[in-house]
Amino acid sequence: MTQTARDEHGDVTLLVVDDDAQHAETISESLRRSGYRTLVAGSGKAALEALEGDHVDIVLTDLVMRDVDGMEVLTTARRLHPDIEVVVMTGYASVEGAVEAMKKGASTYLKKPLNIQELRAVVEKVVEKQNLSRSNLYLHQELDRKYGFSGILGNSEPMQKVFTTLQSVAPTSATVLIVGESGTGKELVAKAIHRNSPRRNHHFIPINCTAMPEGLIESELFGHEKGSFTGALGARKGRFEFANHGTLLLDEIGDMPLSTQAKLLRVLEERCVYRVGSNVPIPVDVRLLASTNRHLEELTREGKFREDLYYRLRVVTINLPPLRTRQSDIAILIDHFIREFAQQHGRRIEGITPAARALLLGWRWPGNVRELRNSIEAMVVLARDPILDVKDVPEEIQQRRDGGGAPAGGGVPSMVGMKLEQAEVELIRATLAMVKGNREEAARILGIGERTLYRKLKEYGLGEIGKDGGGAP
Ligand SMILES: Nc1ncnc2c1ncn2[C@@H]1O[C@H](COP(=O)(O)OP(=O)(O)OP(=O)(O)O)[C@@H](O)[C@H]1O
Ligand SMILES: [Mg+2]
Q1: What confidence tens digit (pLDDT) does each residue in 255-305 have?
Q2: Is the pLDDT of residue 360 over 60?
Q3: Is 373 a pocket residue for ligand 1 (Cβ < 6 Å)?
Q4: By the 8 A CB rule, do 63 and 98 touch?
Q5: Under 8 Å CB-to-CB from 390, ≥6 apart: which residues?
Q6: Average pLDDT, stretch 354-359?
Q7: pLDDT tens-digit profile of 129-141?
Q8: What is residue 11's predicted lDDT score, i.e. its pLDDT?
Q9: Nearest ligand, CA 374
Q10: By CB atoms within 10 Å of each CB, which of 229, 261, 287, 342 scores lowest?
Q11: Is 200 left (phi over 0), alpha (psi -120 to 50) or beta?
Q12: 373, 374, 375: which to mutate for ligand 1, most atoms within 8 A of CB?
């Protein structure tokens, strides 16, 4: 038997769903003998309940069942836990149902009657596939070697620092606080930490503290016992328990209610959770990551965030600066997203004109990388020609209604009719203005050496621009 990354199969939980109880039991038993942890659901409905309440890695489900059928089990499983793998079993000679299931995200299918050998081999393969995609390393290696860390791109100085910190902190179990404006990549960084830690083969569980009222957030985090509040029909595991041996991301922790903060602190100190309505401690081994776009220190001064929790969280802090302050990252990300979306949407896009690129470099990006990513996707999808041009740039960026950055030049068309030398002057002037006079940055964007830029500035009598960091006159 191949050694999977999860050392023992006991770490892998399979849910076997079949309304033929004896069949389900037989399958479950033979998988248990291979060392897997198994759960059995005697109906589609029972399967949905198990998916809500238990930790499940892989689902094996019959397709044709009364009440809730296998297709619904499949779609619910994928919706609740995107990294779950589903294998469908079909009792009918027709493969159509199986094909349909594959389209909806099933990993593979098995024909009934099952051959135990085949069943084990298939499950083994699916476990390996899941391990691979959970660690997801192979995807990013190529890019990272050039400029990035685990899928986070950037060669600006602040991002290089972030990568250095990530390299040393990821493999530990340290709590990390990730701070940055919306869309700067906080969740991406959290995932990278998880992927590069010894916990990578266990769950990464994010929970957003903004969206939830106090009562709900506690039951989500810590779970609840049956009948602990109105509507708590059954006992339920919380995210802490789901994240056992893995990583829990408390997203937007600045929005967590004070009373929940107190309970969280207790969990961190005791390494145990108490389900709502119970005082039985449940030991948990969870690495905690927290992120926020708010100023936690200020919140503590205002009494909205517990100081002791703040000190506990900020031991290692990673600051993700706004994209507009990282010009060289914008450049890399533009090229990366063009390639990504061209491939994803099957479009032949070969590049972007300097004028269009300059517009993007000059924009303020209030939504940071997310906004850039979405803009490029739209450009790629809507483009008519293989080279993206100014006309493909989202209108608000073309018009810089938001104030944009510094003027990024009127684009190539306004230069038509100009002498080449004059156009060069204009381009240099506009580029310097865009980067607020930073000559090093301007030279990089223009694709020339810094010395060449100095020479040209002198030659064209632009010597004063950029000297004091001021923009174009
Ligand atoms: N440095 C980066 N390299 C590549 N992609 C990035 C980078 N930073 C962010 N992204 C992408 O931008 C999008 C937004 O990132 P993410 O969701 O991590 O931001 P966030 O800081 O958590 O935002 P919010 O505060 O709104 O939750 C994602 O699609 C992410 O993959
Ligand atoms: Mg986020």
Answers
A1: 999 999 999 999 999 999 999 999 999 999 999 999 999 999 999 999 999
A2: yes
A3: yes
A4: yes
A5: 353, 355, 356, 359, 398, 411, 412, 413
A6: 90
A7: 887 766 554 455 5
A8: 80
A9: 1
A10: 229
A11: alpha
A12: 373
Domain boundaries, the chain: 9-135, 139-320, 325-459
Instruction: Please give the distance, rounded to the nearest whole angstrom, from the Cα atom of residue 69 to the centre of ligand 1.
Output: 37
Output the CA 295–ligand 1 centroid distance in Å: 19
Q: Would you say the CATH fold of 139-320 matches that of 9-135?
A: yes
Instruction: Check whether 159 has a pLDDT greater than 80.
Output: yes
Ligand 2 center to residue 317 CA distance, Å?
16
208 CB near ligand 1 (under 6 Å): no
**Band of residue 192 on the pLDDT scale cut at 50, 70, 90:** very high
Structure token digits, residue 418: 């100009």
Residue 143 Cβ < 6 Å to ligand 1: no
The reply to whether ligand 1 has any atom less than 6 angstroms from the CB of 184 is: yes
Residue 43 is which amino acid? S
Q: What is the CATH number of domain 325-459?
A: 1.10.8.60
- Residue 347 C-alpha to ligand 2 middle, in angstroms? 29
Of 155, 134, 115, 143, residue with least CA distance to 6: 134
**Beta bridge partner(s), residue 161:** none
Please give the share of the chain, as a percent, with pLDDT higher than 70.
Answer: 86
Say what the pLDDT of residue 132 is: 72
Cis before residue 386, ω within 30 degrees of 0?
no
pLDDT at residue 350 greater than cutoff 70 = yes
Specify the ligand 1 atom closest to the Cα of 178. 21
Of the bound ligands, which one is closest to the alpha carbon of residue 318?
1
Q: How far apart are CA 62 and CA 112, in angstroms?
A: 9
467 pLDDT tier (thresholds 50, 70, 90): low
Q: Would you call 10 exposed, middle or buried from its count of C-beta atoms within 10 A (0-12, 13-18, 19+)?
A: exposed
Fold of 9-135: Rossmann fold (3.40.50)
Say yes or no: CB of residue 292 within 6 Å of ligand 1.
Answer: no
Name the pTM for this structure: 0.63
Give 45-102 as a DSSP string.
HHHHHHHHHS--SEEEEES--SSS-HHHHHHHHHHH-TT-EEEEEE-SS--HHHHHHH
pLDDT tens-digit readout, 53-98: 788 999 999 998 888 999 999 999 988 777 789 999 987 656 788 8
CB-based burial, 220-241: b 16+ in 10 Å, e otherwise = bbbbbbeebeeebeeebbbbbb
Residue 226 has pLDDT above 50, yes or no: yes
Is the CB of residue 140 below 6 angstroms from any atom belonging to ligand 1?
Answer: no
Domain 139-320 has CATH 3.40.50.300: yes
Tell me which DSSP letter residue 304 carries.
S
